[in-house]
Design a protein that fits this description.
36 helices, alpha/beta, 5-stranded mixed sheet, Serine Threonine Protein Phosphatase 5, Tetratricopeptide repeat
Amino acid sequence: MIAQATSNIGETYYSSGDFKKAIEHQEVALNLWRELTDIRGQSQALVALGYDYINLAEPKQALELFDQAVAFSQSIHDLHGEALALIALSSLKAKTSEPQQALDALNKARELSERIGDQTSLAIVISRVGVIYFGLGNNEKALEFATEGNRLFERSDEKWGAAENRVMLGKIHHAFGEEELALKYLNEAVDRFRSLSMPRLESQALQDIGLVYSTLNDNQKAIDAYQRSMKLLRPGQDQQRLAYTLNYIGRCYENEHDYKTASDYYDRALPLSRVASDQAAEILTLHNLAQVERALGNLDAARANIEASIALTESFRAKVVSQDLRASYFATVRQNYELYIEVLMMLHKMRPSEGFDSAAFGVSERARARSLLETLQEAQTNVREGVDPSLLEREKTLQAELNLKAERQMKLTGSQEKGEVDKVAQEINSLTTELAAVRDQIRSTSPHYAALTAPQPLDLREVQQRLIDDDSILLEYALADERSYVWVVTRTAVSTYELGSRKDIEESAKRLYANVVAYQIVPGQPVEQTEERRKRADDSIQSETTSLSKLILGPLAGTLGNKRLVIIPDGALQYIPFQALLDPDSNASVPRFLLESHEIVNEPSASTLSLLITEARERKPAPNSVAVVADPVFEVDDPRVKRASQDATPESAETKRVKQALRDVGISADGVQIPRLFSSGKEADAIMSYAPWGTGLKAVGFEANRDWILGEHLANYRVVHFATHGLINNEHPELSGIVFSLFDQQGRGQDGFLRLHDIYNLHLPADLVVLSACSTGLGKDVRGEGLIGLTRGFMYAGASGVVASLWKVDDEATAELMKLFYAGLFQNGLSPAAALKEAQLTMSQQKRWQSPYYWAAFVLQGRYDEQVGGHRLSYLTPKRVAIPVALVVGLIGLIFIVVRRRRARII
C-alpha cells in the first residue's frame, strides 16, 4: 500500500510538471516493490520513471527503464503491464525521431490491449498512432485515429484522455485550415486541463492556440498565448516544449519583419532542441534560422543552416520503412528544399560562376519522387523471400478483406444508409492501415530489403551524362510560394529561369484543366446542355492556354529549338499536357502548339528515368511485339453472351459494385449499364493490322478477363495495350484499377476488376504499357512525390514506359488516336514519343478533333527512346514482298501434289 501511495504521489508531481520530485517518489516506490519482490509494481514504477526522464531530455535513461519494464511484464505474463510499457516505449521512439519503431511498439500494444479488453490502454494506443501519423504529415489518418481515440476515452470516462485528444483534434483541424473548429477543441482542452490541475498539458494546448492565431495573422494574440504557455512550464524541466514555443514566438516576430528579435528566439531554441534530442524541433529551428539569415542577406549563413536542416531531414526519413509515410513526411518538409533552392539561386545571382544553379537542380531532384525511386529499386528484388510465412499469409488475408470491403463500398455509393456508409469507410481505413503495417513488417524483416541501399538522386552532371542526348532538352520545374524556377538542361549546359509564384501558376493551370475537361460527356445530360457547356469552354481554352504558356514557357523563348522535351512538372502542372501549350517561339498572331515542334515526355524525376533506363538495359527484349486487351464484356445482355435463357444467373454483387463506381465517376449514367466500348474493338483490329506478322496477340471480349491477365502471357510482349474502363480512387490509390470482362460466355458473373495491388504483383517487363482508358494518368497527389496511381503500379511491375490519360477520354477519338499512334510505331518505325507526337498532331489538325480534349489527354512517362536504353528495339513492320500471282498459283499446285503423294504413301 505504501509503495502504491508513493507512486501515486509521484504521478501527481508528474502531472504538475515537477519531474524531479516525481523521480524522487518513483524511485522510493521502486525500491519498496523490489523489497516486496513485486514484479508488477516494479514494472509500473519503471514506466513512470521513464516518462519522467523523457521530459527531462534523458532518452537513454528512459530507454533502459522501458526495456526493463517490458521484460519484467513478459516474465510474469502481465499483458496489461506489457502493453503500458510498449506505449511508453512508443512515446520515447516518437520523441527521438524513430516513428517506425514507435508504430511497431504501438501495434504490439494494441494487440495486447484488445486481447485483454483493456479499453483505456486501447484508447491511448489509438490516440498515439494518430499523433505519429500527424507528425508524418498524414492528416487524414491522424483524424481517423484521434476521433476513434476520443470516442474510447469519452466512453471510459477518462477525462484526461479526452482532453488530450481535443488538443490533437485541434492540431489536425488547424492543419486542414479549419481554424474556428481548431480553436473550439483547443479552448475546451485548456478548460479541462485547468480543472484537472494539469498545467503542463494546459501549456501545450495554449501553444497550439498560439499557432492558430499566428495563421490568422493575429501575431499579438499568438504571442500572448505562447507567453501564457511558457509561464506554465517548469524551468529546466521541459526543454522540448520550450524549444518549440521559442520557435513559434520567433516566427511571429519574423512575420512582423523584426528579423533580429526573431533570430534571438531561434538561437535560444536551437540548443534546447538538441538537449531534448528532438530532431524534428532541431530541423524546424535550423530552417527558421536559415529563413531569417536569408531575409537579412546573410546567404552563406542561411545556406549552412538549411543544409544542416536537410541533413537531419534525410536522416529522419531513412528511419521510416513505410514508403507511404516517407512520402507524407516529405510533403511536410518540402519547404526546407524550397528554401534551399531559393538560397542557392540567390547566391547564383550574386556569384554566377560558382555553380549554385547546378547545385539547386540537384536539390530539386532530391525533393521529388523519392518514394517512387526507392519503390522501383525494391521491385528488382524479391523482398518477400525469407520472410515469416505467417506474415505473408496475414498480408494475403488482409488484402482479401480489403477487396471485399471496397466492393461493399461501391455497392453503397449513393445510398441513403449513411451509418452503414460511414462504417464501411472506417473499416476500409482500418484495413488499409493494418495492411500497410504488415507490409512494413515484411520489409523490415526481409533480408533482401535490408541489403538494399537507398538509391541516390542524380546531380546535374550525372543527368547530362546518362539521360540527355544531343536531340533532347530537359525542363525541370520547381514551384514555390514566392517565386518558382525552371532548369533548362542540355547535354553540355544548364540555364535557369525565374518564374512566378506557385499560386499564380497553379491557379492558371487549374483554370485551363477545368475548361478542357468541360468537354467531357456527362451521362444523362441533354445534348443541348453539353453543347452549351462546350461552347463556354471553347471561349476560354485559348485565353487560358495563352496565359499558362506565358507563365511557364514564355521565358524560354529562343532556347528550345526543335528538340525533344523531357518535362519534369511540379504541383498542378502534372495535370497539364504540355503538348497543348503554346510554343514560346511561335508568332503571337499565329500561335502554334508546342507539339508542332517537339516530342514531349513527362517524368516524375530525372533520377527515376535513369533507373528505368538502367533496368531496361539489363534485360532482354521480349520476343513478341504487342498484346492488345480490349472490348471486354460488361453486361449479361451483351449479344456476345451466348447462352440459353434457363442458364441465366443473377448479376453478381461484384458486377453491381463496379457499375455503381463507374456511375460515380461519370462513366455509367445510371449505375445499371456499363457502356460497351465499341470503338475499342476497332482500336484492337487497327493495332493488329499494323503489328509485325505473327508477333501480336489480341484478347477481346471474354478473353479480356482478369484471370488471363494475371497469368504470365503478357510478359512476352514488348508493348501491352489495355482498352477498357479505368477507375481512379484519389483517396485510396490502392483501390484504383481497370475493369475487364464481368461475365463469361455462359453469362455467369465473374470478378473483372484488376486493382492496383494486382498490378504491383504482375510480371510485366514491357517496353511500353498503353492505358487506353479514362484518367489513368491521375492518382493521389502527394506534394513532392507526385501522382500516386496506376502509372506507378505498371512501372513497379516492370514497364519501362507508360502512356496514360489525364482525363475522361472520348471512346471514338481515342480509337482514332491509337490507330495513328501504332501506325507510327510499327509502320514508320518511330519511337513511342515520336509516334505519339505525330498521332496527336494529325488529330489536332482535323476539324472534328481539333479541341485539345480529344487529342491531348494521353501523355508518355518513363523511357521514351529505346536507343537511350542501350539497345535499339525497332518497332518497324517487316516489308511485305510482292509475289507474282503465277508464282503463288504454282506454289499452291506444288503443295497440292506433295500432299497427295504423302497421302498415297500413307494409304
